[in-house]
Amino acid sequence: MDAGMMDSAGMQAASPTPGGTTAFDLATWSRQQLERVEGALSQWVCSEAPAGLGEAMRYAVLDGGKRLRPLLVLAAADAAGGLPEAALRAACAVELIHAYSLVHDDMPCMDNDVLRRGKPTVHVQFGEAQALLAGDALQALAFGLLTPEDGVPPATQALLCRLLARAAGADGMAGGQAIDLASVGVALTEDELRQMHRLKTGALLQASVVMGAACGTASAAALAALTQYGAALGLAFQVVDDILDVTADSATLGKTAGKDAASDKPTYVSLLGLDRARAYADQLLADAHAALAASHLPDTRALAALADMVVNRSH
């Protein structure tokens, strides 16, 4: 995998469309979108929650992270002609669910990690009880953002809530995390490992794409293609994460490197080896581009560039 031209966030500066015709400036597009997301998160994650809870919530969410999930929501919404207000709320809601999951994942009862996004984890900074509550509050806030009194049609609100709940719950992220915890020291087959990561990591990434499309008017065929794109991208993200866990250092990753091997967790590298894991990531990237081409949407350049960034990233 060629790292290509990356900006300071590890994002590829330009990427061709699946047809290879027009360059797309991902760095500029991402900066514009992230300004919207960061401003909205800063406004909606309130510091006034009681007893220091708001401070812990903001610490967990603001000033860090790749924001891949919000970018996928906004890119899919752009491709599908989505409502801007619905797309922004969906982008922030997905990020809040992701942030809450990281807060809980890092706690001593789960992965017991002390570093996240280049700074101490929330339970290290604020204590375990406050971290637990911060995660709970962020999860609730996510669904609050999807149900404003106006600006988003009620049917769209309900659909977005249903998609996010399914991706975050027992049939998605939480279920995958349960399998992950139960698999420490267990030799999984490739199919079992793939299923675990489809739930733990892939479900929320796939939901980001589908939620963005749900803010617009994509046809059933286009939505099916975007769903396939999201599935390939979600799995590719985890494969690359497994690769980086053994090839990058903690300073680059912003989290503890080598943690999976030290915890005896099954990974794509431990199962396939480094070279085959890299080849698998490249195949998933090709699958993602093929799905975008099959969508026949007029402009999927942002989604194509994000897929390239996921596989070619350095952290």
From TrEMBL:
Pfam families given in the database record: polyprenyl_synt (PF00348)
CDD domains according to UniProt: Trans_IPPS_HT
Cofactor(s) named in the record: Mg(2+)
InterPro entries attached to this UniProt entry: Isoprenoid_synthase_dom_sf, Polyprenyl_synt, Polyprenyl_synt_CS, Prenyl_diphosphate_synthase
Gene3D superfamilies in the cross-refs: Farnesyl Diphosphate Synthase
Entry keyword set: Isoprene biosynthesis, Magnesium, Metal-binding, Transferase
PROSITE patterns: POLYPRENYL_SYNTHASE_1, POLYPRENYL_SYNTHASE_2
Any one GO molecular function term: dimethylallyltranstransferase activity
Annotated EC: 2.5.1.1, 2.5.1.10
Similarity annotation: Belongs to the FPP/GGPP synthase family.
Name of this chain's protein: Farnesyl diphosphate synthase
Organism listed in the record: Paracidovorax wautersii
Upper lineage: Bacteria, Pseudomonadati, Pseudomonadota, Betaproteobacteria, Burkholderiales
